[in-house]
Amino acid sequence: MNPTQAPVFILSSAGRTGSTLLQRLLISTREIMIWGEHDGAMVAAAGNLLDRLQAWHGLTDGRQQQEAFARHGHDAWIPNLTPPMTAFLDGLRALFTESMGAEARRLGYPRWGFKEIRHDGNAAVLLKTLFPEARFVFSVRHPAEALRSLKSTGWYGLHCGSDPVRFASIWTANVQSLLRAAPRLGPVLVVRYEDMVASPQIVVDAIAAHVGIAAERFDLSAFQRRHRGSSKPPEVLSGADHQALTAAELVRTAKLLGYDVTGNTRTD
Predict the structure, then answer these.
(1) Could you tell me the pTM of the whole model?
(2) Are strands 32-35 and 265-266 parallel, antiparallel or unpaired?
(3) What is the pLDDT of residues 194-204, one digit of tens each?
(4) Domains held by the chain: number
């Protein structure tokens, strides 16, 4: 696939993984506008619509009614006649390209994409269905550090109910789902937050090759301008936090990304 015109989607294991830094880096090239989170609404709505229409087509023999109309026109039995599913896919594709894509071009960016922390592998596969040429970046961070950072925000309660067990479950489920989906997505780049801050140029070179933008277009000064948004400095983990991070599935999943959770340290 030629990545030079493809949309780019940054998906995350959870909040506080560096997805906003990735967003800012890509925007800094002036070649692609990466829109921010939108509560996962567009993909969720698109998936729900497609699921319902597909079920309805099966229930009402939609294809047969389309074929009958093609042969007999208004004399056919067509009470549930709808366009084919390919037409709805085209319409949903236009929803993204005419909102995010067109607005990106209006701002002077020839390409577009978005970052979202609420999407799992199923959402990624739907995006791949709509945009076969899309490039995916998975943003991850050691779960202990992600939790420490998340606890310092005002939306820890909203996102996880201020419950470290729920955080651990979300982190594990998202990582597992995204990794399972990866073989169906074409080229996927996994970016660890720790690698970004330790070796910015190496990570930027990898991103540049992945999305088809020259590495020199990236403004590495974004690494020096840290933005916490509404968050405070990271919190200390409690005993309950550490206990939640020992869940067997989380430990096993973290190891796939090179993280040693049992000691709350990174492994290479």
Answers:
(1) 0.92
(2) unpaired
(3) 999 999 999 99
(4) 1
